[in-house]
Amino acid sequence: MRGGLVIAAAALAAGACSPVVAPDQLALCREVLPALHDPGTLIRESRHGPAPAGSGVRIDYLAERPGLPRTAHFATCRFEGRDPRGRPDLADLSTERGPFPGARFVILKRWWLDQAPTTPRSAGKAR
Fold first, then answer.
1. How many angstroms separate the CA atoms of 83 and 88, rounded?
2. How confident is residue 52, by pLDDT bands cut at 50, 70 and 90?
3. Could you tell me the CA-to-CA distances from 117 to 11, 12, 14, 106, 122 in Å, in that order?
4. Three-state SS for 100?
5. How many CB atoms lie within 10 A of CB 63?
């Protein structure tokens, strides 16, 4: 009995050390956040975790424009496979406003993410 408890505790500890979201997916989803707001908006991530029911990540964050109060937002990024650059391929994006519209999603992927430098523009900085 005691041996079983030790094994169970070790398994829980090992699981707690492993990431709950893929780091490359999290980085790419963070790269999307500034594109969802006006230039000069400060993005501050409050938490992140796995996307509900699927491969991806959800990021909760605060956005603040100069002279305006902070507003709470979230983005859920879902992925399928890899893009030609070897990064996770963003397949779907949803925010608190609902699914990101088709044409805007294509523009986001083609002109925002495809033009992104190899190091992220990063959350927490104004765009």
1. 6
2. confident
3. 38, 38, 34, 18, 11
4. coil
5. 18
User: Helix or strand or coil: residue 102?
Assistant: helix
56: Cβ–Cβ under 8 A, 6 or more apart, which residues?
21, 25, 29, 50, 76, 77, 78, 79, 92
pTM assigned to the model:
0.75
Ordered by start, the domain boundaries in the chain are 21-113
| Percent of the chain clearing pLDDT 70 (strictly above) | 76
Please say whether the beta carbons of 38 and 30 come within 8 A. Answer: no
Place of tokens 């398994």: 11
Which structure tokens are listed for 99? 């699914």
- Scored b (16 or more CB within 10 A) or e, 92-108 reads ebbeeeeebeeeeeeeb
Beta strand pairing call for 56-64 and 71-82: antiparallel
H helices present in 1-127, as ranges: 2-17, 23-32, 102-107
